[in-house]
Amino acid sequence: MNEANMLDMIKKRRSIRKYTDEAVTDEQLRQLLEAAMAAPSGNNVQPWEFVVVRDPDLKRQLAQTHTWSYMAADAAVVFVVCANERASHHWIADASAATENLLLAATALGLGAVWVGIYPGTDREAHVRRVLDIPEEIRVLCLVPVGHPAESKAARTQYRESKVHYEGW
Fewer CB within 10 A of the end CB, N or C, for the chain? Predict the structure, then answer.
């Protein structure tokens, strides 16, 4: 992929919340996880952990985490991005980098995905931890519902010159 195609793909990544009934294949699942784990990590600790959820009942329970997690019920698969807080002080940044890689890989594969924030909501984390039996030392950063898109959104950037500062503030 050349630079122009990569930049176009980054702009094409959008939050997709509606999915068809088509399954995500095991190969696609593996590609998404490989992309996620190709992310940079502070001191290369790689504190991330992923729970892959395909079970319809578990997806329905995850959809009830909060107001903005409803699409988890209809996604083909939900990735629960976690990290071992004790392994790295950089767990939030590391798991976030892995999440962005996962989202970009979904776009590259023609899939739709959305980042559903869980951290820092302790009640949200507790709900996900309870549903999936996640150990206490493992923090839950977000859910990433993924599926074949049943909606289309135009590519875009949200670039604003006012947010850019050169050589200081």
Answer: C
Report yes or no on 168 lying in a domain.
no
Q: What is the pTM of this model?
A: 0.96
DSSP state of 137: T
> What are 39's two structure tokens?
């992310």
Which among 52, 108, 112 is positioned nearest to 77, based on CA atoms? 52
Q: How many CB atoms lie within 10 A of CB 163?
A: 7
SS3 label, residue 82: strand
CATH of the domain at 66: 3.40.109.10
Number of structural domains the chain divides into: 1
Tell me the residue range of the domain where 117 lies.
Answer: 16-151
Angle subtended at Cα 158 by Cα 153 and Cα 161, rounded to the nearest 5 degrees: 160
Q: Does 6 reside within a domain?
A: no
Q: CA 18, CA 120: separation in Å to the nearest integer?
A: 25
